[in-house]
Amino acid sequence: MIPLLQINHLCVDYVSPNGVARAVNDVSLTIGEGETLGIAGESGCGKSTLAFAIAKLHKAPALISEGEILFQGEDVLTMSAARLREFRWNDVSVVFQSAMNALNPVITIGEQLTDVILAHRNVSYRHAVERAAELLNIVGIHSDRLRSFPHQLSGGMRQRVVIAIALALEPKLIIMDEPTTALDVVVEREILNELYDLKSRFGFSILFISHDLSLMGEIADRIGIMYAGNLVELGDAEQVFHAPKHPYTQGLLASFPTIHGPKERLFGIPGSPVNLLDIPRGCNYQARCIQCTSLCRVHEPVLKRVSDERQVACHLYSAS
Fold this sequence. Notes:
Elements: E1 5-16, E2 19-31, E3 36-40, H1 47-54, E4 62-71, E5 74-75, H2 81-90, E6 92-95, H3 99-102, H4 109-120, H5 125-138, H6 155-167, E7 173-177, H7 185-202, E8 205-210, H8 213-219, E9 222-227, E10 230-236, H9 237-242, H10 247-254, E11 304-307, E12 310-312
Parallel strand pairs: 3-8, 3-9, 6-7, 7-8
Antiparallel strand pairs: 1-2, 1-4, 4-5, 9-10, 10-12, 11-12
Helix pairs in contact: 4-5, 5-6
Subcellular location: Cell inner membrane
Domain ABC transporter: 5-253
GO cellular component, one term: plasma membrane
């Protein structure tokens, strides 16, 4: 069965006068129909760059240098401008982080919703307004808010509006890039609950991007961990949480306090993320890894399957 989305050996570079920074390095993954795949990692690890590349929304100095992105078997990277316009919003939509910045501050919520519908559907203005009102109701906002401007809404309501826009054309895949950033935990919980309900109702797939692993564990079916542009671990969400294999994943989870049991000292990951303009030979994580070996300083590990539902890029499992 062809997956909804298949990424093969994708590389995305940022070209600057100081050199080439590889933000996404040889990433391969799939997303099935109705699946939620979470991508987690520190800021600057390549999560958002990967998301923009999937929808081909990246702009200079970003450049896709290698790989392919297949959506239902069709190569996104070879799509014509007309096909790309249809592909975006109809097949794939994006919920950007920071909803206030994603919405036009001088246009009403209703206009922003109807603009998307009218641009991609051959319908009357009246039908578009009715659909916009329906979308607001779907995400828990009264249709009276169609005449409101973004600054007149709370942060949680603005985020719901962005989700409504993403749902407008009933896409098969929604990319959510830090969708709950800057929201308090109560509103964050409300947004997550609505996502559960909407996914059950409409059956779309989600690529959920976040630096918050605890949040990821609640919504994702599978989790991928990125570090310095590389996908270092990929597997079932529950397995990744309860038995992390890559030292970086272990470090991320060790930095979260436990709710139950005795209090224990938290241990952060030592050092700083690698400079993408000066990638070391071997493993990108070697300078911060407490399990680093001589092999790690010479050969770059590749993502390999270590069990039916787990892939890890680490020399500790090279003999598995």
